[in-house]
Amino acid sequence: xxxxxxxxxxxxxxxxxxxxxxxxxxxxxxxxxxxxxxxxxxxxxxxxxxxxxxxxxxxxxxxxxxxxxxxxxxxxxxxxxxxxxxxxxxxxxxxxxxxxxxxxxxxxxxxxxxxxxxxxxxxxxxxxxxxxxxxxxxxxxxxxxxxxxxxxxxxxxxxxxxxxxxxxxxxxxxxxxxxxxxxxxxxxxxxxxxxxxxxxxxxxxxxxxxxxxx
Length: 214
What we know:
The protein has about 210 residues and is α/β, with parallel strands linked by helices. Helix content is about 25%, strand content about 30%. The strands form 3 sheets. The chain has a 7-stranded mixed beta sheet, sandwiched between helices. Strands 6-5-7-10 form a 4-stranded mixed beta sheet, covered by helices on one side. The chain is globular.
């Protein structure tokens, strides 16, 4: 049976994510056991709160090595919200750069909008060939965030972990004056700035689409 681990490192809406995956009939476990995370068909890296604290928590739990090793082996990883942000080179939430995992190039910076955080439902603009958004290209998704990556690139410090033929596909969203990455697909690495587990039927379809890549 297909198995998913929601990696528990102390940050994230883990219970709601576990329920969302379980509702799809998937064997899902919430655990901080790195061995189980390596063995599962798919791993979800959630995240809420401050960029720096999430990165430190993920590293303390060994989650950074889980992500690097899984991606290097072509094993699916889904990062959500701050769990997406920490995959980039740097976060500037504290006003100074904090190193992320660097699987992708790009900086995580504050949204330029009259009201922050960006909280609520919004539409996204999907690229051709997206697997995550197949059949839900025109749907709305639920966001709660003040920071995002505006310009993801393939050239992160640790991008050598990604397969050479992994194409970068970026889904965007506009809020205020900011157009930011709402989702990224690059080989085994999938990222969403919004919360699929809070995005009703569209979020459930996105999770099902991700699981179909296993």
